[in-house]
Amino acid sequence: MQSNITLPTDNVYKFYAFLGILLMLTAAIMFFMRNQYYNSMAFDRFVPMENLKAKGVLKNDEKLELYLYEEKERIARSELDFELLMYFFGFFIGVGFTFYGFRHWHTKIQPQQDRLLDLEIRKLENELKSFDKSV
After folding, report:
1. Which residues 6+ apart lie within 8 Å of 84 measured at CB?
2. Could you name the domain of life of the organism this protein comes from (predicted)?
3. Distance between alpha carbon 72 and the CA centroid of its chain, in Å?
């Protein structure tokens, strides 16, 4: 099975632009997925933790259990902060690639391609005029 999708390899700026879009989409999707995952984990810890806190007087094993829930929450929060920071970083790297790629593609490559097309049109018009004169 062959893929009909071709990569934009005709110039590197187009590749940068599409790579940046891919990075932005990936980082945004992962950000929301991981944030939702951590929120559900936090909710799963919240109910037992609040039940233990509501008891007032706790036995030693309940104190240990409460401590473990609090430590899991602290660790998960620090992991979440780090992961979300990495996703934001990836998103802004993607924005940079996209801006750089599209800007250079639009200002350097596209004007040359437009000029080349204009010259080809003029050439074909001249050939058509010379053909009409010869006939």
Report:
1. 31, 34, 35
2. Bacteria
3. 29
